[in-house]
Amino acid sequence: MSAVLAKAFPSNLNCPRSHLPAKPKKKKLVASPQVSTKGELVMDERDTSKSAPSAKVKRKRVNKESSFVNTIGYGDENTGFRVKKKESKAAVVEKKEKKIDEEVFDGGKETVLQEEEKSYLSDTRFDECPISLSSLKGIKDAGYVKMSKVQEATLPLILQGKDVLAKAKTGTGKTVAFLLPAIEVLSKLPSSNLGKKVSPINVLVLCPTRELAIQAATEAKKLLKYHPSVGAQVVIGGTRLTQEQRNMQANPCQILIATPGRLKDHIENTTGFQARLKGVKVLVLDEADRLLDMGFRRDIESIIAALPKERQTLLFSATVPKEVQQICHVAMRKDHEFVSTVEEGTEETHAQVRQMYLIAPLEKQLSVLHQLLTEHISQDSDYKVIVFCTTAMVTALVAEVLGGLKFKVREIHSRKSQAYRTRVSQEFRQSKGLILVSSDVSARGVDYPDVTLVIQIGMPSDREQYIHRLGRTGRKGKEGQGILMLAPWEIFFLNTVKDLPITEAAPCQPDPDCQGKILKVLARIDMRNKERAYQAWLGYYNSAKGIGQDKLRLVNLAREFSESMGLREPPALQRKVLSKMGLSKVPGFRSI
Ligand SMILES: Nc1ncnc2c1ncn2[C@@H]1O[C@H](COP(=O)(O)OP(=O)(O)OP(=O)(O)O)[C@@H](O)[C@H]1O
């Protein structure tokens, strides 16, 4: 058995008609039953906690230049497992251990995995790792048996106390990869902190969106199921600050999961909060590249200034551009490890996700979208589609049009209340046969199972956003499809993704009757919604690289957009709005 434990951890109008591939038949595999360790091995939580920080990491290759950690192994002396010595423990302890042992390793439970679902998993089982029994039980209840590759690659480093910058493809289990070792670090802290209601915050996880923060908290709660004295709480915008303050006072909160703006709010306005943050031992930046980009950077810097310097920092994302590697010192120690499970020279997207682009002028995009959706739904009754739009108000408009065309749709974006967003998000997670029209609030991290198609209308803000949005499908090794719909003047965006396997869709004409139906639906939509969409659209493209610089051209493109909503004249905008966008002196925009 010890040998097992020592094993290595290792500009035509195009529309994809015939290219929406039929679903291949799935081959079912039965995962090998868990090895029962009953009577042979006992895991000792105290032993584990002692050995884990010193776990010897055997890295066959950790090449900072190539940024690829190839294989990692645990030595058996560091696993936290030991061979049970005859009569070596008091009977009562033995009985207790045996009971937990039986609960964790009940053996023989059959987990059915689809063949493609194995690709993101490693060969290492969680029960081969130096983690506490309480965590193992939570993992088992969550249904996880084998570690994903990123979990296998990062766990030993994090348990050693290293700062880690990790890159792994979308939907491959990064959340557990940072939460599990963070919980292990926490569970080894002096027990005087545990169980206290107003305890120091020991693990701080920052997420760029509220949905992601809620999701990370749900995952944390699964892993904490058998850690009764440890609590995870969420603080996010759009909810009552006072309610969050009460929650953090009244319940254990050693793990805090937050969006940056709301966390700053608590730092500034919640009594005693700064003192609690002084207990932070592990800081996690989920979607690190997003949190370190200009939109969040200031907030992140001021949050980091409120944390102890002596801490461990973990940065995770599916995309880690060079600039992020250069600026990660803002958060991490110099000797941090960079772990990538995306081999150099391979794509950052999943091979099992078919990617296509199609070019359609703005006035045809809604009818092309109609056609794409109709075709996809006819091919897959279990369809689950996300349609990404450039801004919140454009999202609302597209959702209204699709609803008017009798598609089953939900919308989610920043202009909806948090309660509504949470409800829609939960509904979509559990549904089949539903289309979610979304702004970028769902672009990153959100884990909706079995999304069959992701459509992106209009160019994403950058290459990374394209990859993250596409990553809402093809999760956990499953198949998926992605379609990027661009206007002819957005074609230049394709240059930024030319290394990805994205091919042009086969040409086709949308159903001629459809345009008439769309115009009727558009005619029924409240003018204010069109005005809002127009203003938001203009704001987005005004600051878009490669478009916003040429203001005179922008006037014409904005006119095209307003025509695509069935308007003869572009809506007039408030003078102060135009001035804020730097467009007040540009001829062609109407102001009021
Ligand atoms: N070892 C595992 N075995 C099986 N399922 C797992 C395992 N680890 C995580 N999962 C599940 O895999 C799914 C994807 O995980 P997660 O959302 O953490 O991916 P991610 O890599 O963070 O994706 P993204 O880059 O989009 O944020 C989740 O449903 C999660 O519960």
- Compute the number of helices: 21
Radius of gyration: 26 Å
Question: What do the pLDDT scores average to?
Answer: 82
Strand content: 15-25%
* Arrangement of strands in the largest sheet: 14-15-13-16-17-12-18
Structural class: alpha/beta
Termini separation comes to 78 Å
Q: The biggest beta sheet, please?
A: 7 strands, parallel
Instruction: Give the bound compounds.
Output: adenosine-5'-triphosphate
Based on DSSP secondary structure assignment, what is the total number of beta strands? 25
C-alpha geometry: globular
Keywords: ATP-binding, Helicase, Hydrolase, Nucleotide-binding, RNA-binding
Family: Belongs to the DEAD box helicase family.
Biased composition (Basic residues): 20-29
EC number: 3.6.4.13
